Amino acid sequence: EAGVAQSPRYKIIEKRQSVAFWCNPISGHATLYWYQQILGQGPKLLIQFQNNGVVDDSQLPKDRFSAERLKGVDSTLKIQPAKLEDSAVYLCASSGLVNYGYTFGSGTRLTVV
Amino acid sequence: AQTVTQSQPEMSVQEAETVTLSCTYDTSENNYYLFWYKQPPSRQMILVIRQEAYKQQNATENRFSVNFQKAAKSFSLKISDSQLGDTAMYFCASSEYGNKLVFGAGTILRVKS
Fold it and tell me: What whole-number distance in Å separates Cα of residue B25 and Cα of residue B64?
């Protein structure tokens, strides 16, 4: 099966600019996750979708981050305006209902200068 | 809230030898899963091994095995016959009811020739 697709692979922006990341999960996977991984740390959940509904966004900085999952398939994560501390790898993952398997994308490395 | 702790920031091992990575976790649930993920410089999060909490038998996958001590909430990973390709960051993670993954801070493993 095809993996989780993410784009872009790298992005460099100036602080206060906006940026968007895209994720296409495994076909048929109902649950989609966005994680933020700061260099040298473990991934931290930003938001979890079940189909096109939000299950958990308790750690999403809602004053600057937003995410949507239209039609329960692709998802977009946006940051506006970006801060220096947003420099990180943004990982997308999806999971189905069987065996609780998770599949991760290759991530987007964001550098805010 | 579930937590995962990895107390070894870095480990090194000689090629062909055995190494053990430590992990402790905390959860108030009875239905949970534990995972070890490998993250090479490519950033791709790769599943190494998974353990269902209700299973007493320790999971094994070829050269990888775990020591699951449920009462002590300990979940260590043993890598036998270490290979240069095992060099990576290793993350321990937990999931309650197959929900979101919560990760530890990671352990950098370096395999030396």
Answer: 20
Give the minimum alpha-carbon distance from A87 to chain B in angstroms, rounded to a whole number: 15
What distance in Å separates the CA atoms of residue A66 and residue B77, rounded to the nearest whole number? 36
Q: Is the dihedral of CA A79, A84, A85, A89 positive or negative?
A: positive
Phi, psi (rounded to 5 degrees) for A18: -110, 155
Q: Please identify among residues 29-88 of chain B the ones whose CB lies closer than 8 Å to any CB of chain A.
A: 33, 42-45, 47
Residue B78 maps to which CATH number? 2.60.40.10
User: What is the residue type of B100?
Assistant: K
pLDDT tens-digit map of A63-79: 999 999 988 899 999 99
Structural domain A15-95, CATH architecture: Sandwich (2.60)
Q: What is the pLDDT of residue A43?
A: 96
